[in-house]
Amino acid sequence: MIQWEKTEGGIRAFDRTKTGISIGAADWQTGGDALDLDRPIDETVTGRASELRFPPCYATVTDLATGERYEHGSDTGTLSLPGGDYLVNVHGNVKTYVRFSGRATVGKTEDFGELILSFPERTRVTLGFRSHHEEPVDTIEIPPSPRGLATALTYVSSSHKTTGPDRSFPTLRGHPPRISVGDGLEVPAAVREEKESVGIELLVPDDFDSLFVAAPLAYYLQADVKAERRDAPELRAPAVNYTYSFSPQPSFQHEVADVLRRVFFLDCLVRNAGPHRWDLAEQPLLDEVEIDADETYAASPAEQLVTYMLAPFDRIDADLPDWHLSTYVEPVVENVSPLPYLLSNLSLVYMPETSDLDRSELLDESLNDFYRGGRRPSPPAAPTYRGTEVGSVTSVDRVKPELHRGRVHGWLADDVPIDVFKIEPSAYENRFDYLDRDGDDIEVTLVLNDDEMGTEHETVADIYRDRAEDLPMDVTVRERLRRHELATVFETPRDFVHYIGHCEQDGLRCTDGNLKMADIRESNVQTFFLNACGSYYEGMDLVEKGSVAGAVTFNKVLNKQAAKVGVSFARLLVNGFSIQDAMQFARRRIRTGKDYAVVGDGTHQLAQSDITLPIVTELADEDGKYTITYNPTVVRMVGSGYQPFLEENDELYIYGDSADFTLDETELMALLDHAEMPIIYDGELYWSDEFRLTA
Predict the structure, then answer these.
(1) Mean pLDDT lowest among 61-65, 365-369, 419-423
(2) How far is CA 663 from CA 74, 161, 203, 628, 670, in A?
(3) What total number of domains does the chain contain?
(4) What's the rounded Cα separation, in Å, for the pair 102 and 124?
(5) What is the average pLDDT value for the chain, to the nearest integer?
(6) Which domain holds residue 649?
(7) What is the pTM of this model?
(8) Is residue 689 over pLDDT 90?
(9) In sequence order, which ranges of 535-624 are alpha helices (DSSP H)?
(10) Is residue 124 part of a domain?
(11) Are residues 17 and 163 in the same domain?
């Protein structure tokens, strides 16, 4: 749910995950009768103001009398609205609607900055807010059998708030109900009532392998799932006499991925014929596959499915994003309960496969990542390890996973693979324990338990303090802690702990010995980074004790390289990147990046910026021209839209799709002057201010 508060310069709205949006309104006065918004919202506030200033974002304006829509992107022009009744849809981290009557102008500041809604005089407005985040409400109980799971998969889509193409909006798919395994079958009455019958069936063999793989497609299509004795799965729409036959496993998992991607992205394009239309840069792709958006939007879900399946999708396949998230799940009863959390993020589900990884191959994998941009090695320095007694460090045997479609990968199975985040199922339920805590400040504690690492400590502390100027963040620095003091740090409610020090077989080093995370009463720390040698098992224990996610190391790490990762990770994390993305990009700064990983729910975010959604840009130069590629990263936002903020761009892109632009040197410098974002250039990770100094 959403709360709002009056600030010194206007209003701030935020949800229980501390995701917020700040609205500047210098002369705001709360009060007055609310205006009807006619949109799904969590909270409203009515008042009077002469101007509203929003963070840089895309907005659509609807004339409620005529239905005419206006769009306002990153251009600095002004949209003048004559007298009338209007609804402004502001596409920010928190969905925001503004309803008002009268004349107004919509504009942007010249530095690609704030979106400004101005009135000729103080005017009554109603603001409506809707959170992107939800938690499950009901629980479906099933027996420990494939047919029990098939029943649960039939009803998980009861959380959808709509059918048809609009379900591609992340805010119109609620969190699926929990699934618990018990002695019998019990589907709550509310779940049965809310489940829509869309005329689509998914028939699968009577085994867990097939059902786990089928789960995301069944959830998205709102299909009825039936487990029966059969050799291969089928997708049916009986009312329109349509059947699509899948291959048996292992091909089935890849075909499910292809069908879900096809349906999802065509939904994103067709939905623009409906009332929630967003005109996307990819919109012309519909013409290439000969789909009429208006006709398809008005059809039934079963008819839409047939249209999508018969379309020549291969014509546009390469022009649409790859899938955002894949999870490799051991298909056993114990992993039934985590499924709804994977479906909430529309993760693909694959069967886990691994191969052995020897020491030389592991080094090759790390170096391939580091040198992918054509960099050349520098002469090696004498190694200084993070920990003086390097022989006492706990190392982890790793394997190489067989990875399939997806930008981010999670692992819910045995073994410890590289290049994935290792899921501890309790992480998903732990997340809800942090939603109802008092206050909206992000509580960060930086722990330095070794004086030799003071440089990293000072740099990281500065990063957190600088970010606190933009976000409600409370930063505490602790040094040289004893065992009971460090235990108190992890047992006390806070959002993030960044530990800089040593880790050995018997725990994190303190001034009076070592502390094992398995020995603390409970963890009340939402996220963490244990930047110390061999901290993997300590991190897993923290998640089992109550944390959501954290960054860890697999074995000995060089002190200088650990500092590079720590500084980069801190800056990415406080700028809204998920734990996994922050680590994935931060470890590219060192040659032994495979020594770092994430445990728990790697998609989790510590902080969501009021200013913009996390985007990584890739930069290439040739003959005085620069090609910049925007790559948005947040898993939960896939299906929405985003807008690269360049002076000449007024287009919206499907979130997850990359966007390329060519700039001259003057335009690039102007972008670097105002942007705060990571840039990958020649394989190296920079921040825009760093690159500005070296360019």
Answers:
(1) 365-369
(2) 16, 42, 51, 8, 10
(3) 4
(4) 9
(5) 87
(6) 615-694
(7) 0.84
(8) no
(9) 536-545, 559-574, 579-586
(10) yes
(11) no
Does residue 289 fall inside a structural domain?
yes
Are 544 and 518 in a shared domain? Answer: yes
For residues 248 and 260, give the distance between their C-alpha atoms in angstroms, rounded to a whole number.
17
Cβ-based neighbour number of residue 376 at 10 Å: 5
φ/ψ of 676, rounded to 5, equals: -125, 95
Nearest to 563 by CA among 649, 402, 452: 452
What are the C-alpha distances in Å from 273 to residues 68, 72, 165, 316, 681?
Answer: 13, 19, 9, 19, 39
Residues 6+ apart with CB under 8 A from 673: 692
Q: Are residues 153 and 41 in the same domain?
A: no
Give ∠ CA 536-538-543 in degrees, rounded to 5: 95
Tell me, rounded to whole angstroms, the distance of Cα 357 from its chain centroid: 30
Within-domain flag for 606: no
Q: What angle do CA 286, 291, 292 make, to 5 degrees?
A: 105
pLDDT > 70 fraction of the chain, expressed in percent and rounded: 88
Which residues in 442-563 belong to E strands, given as ranges? 442-448, 473-479, 494-500, 503-504, 507-510, 513-515, 525-531, 549-553
Q: Is there a single domain that holds both residue 501 and residue 635?
A: no
3-state secondary structure of 589: helix
Do 379 and 503 belong together in one domain? yes
In a domain? residue 172: yes
Q: Give exposure, 284-299, as e/b (b: 16+ Cβ within 10 Å).
A: ebbeebebebeebbeb
Residue found under tokens 């972008």: 671
Which of 570, 600, 630 corresponds to the end of one domain? 600
Q: Give dist(CA 216, CA 235) in Å, integer.
A: 13
CATH code: domain of residue 555: 3.40.50.1460
Q: Is residue 158 located within the same domain as residue 223?
A: yes
Question: Domain end: 542, 567, 600, which one?
Answer: 600
Tokens of 687: 């921040």
Q: What is the pLDDT of residue 107?
A: 87
Q: What is the pLDDT of residue 603?
A: 95
Same-domain check for residues 77 and 28: yes
The verdict on 98 and 155 lying in the same domain is: no
What are the tens digits of pLDDT across the range 322-353?
Answer: 999 999 999 999 999 999 999 999 999 999 99
Residue 12 bridge partners (DSSP):
5, 22
Separation of alpha carbons 139 and 684, rounded Å: 46
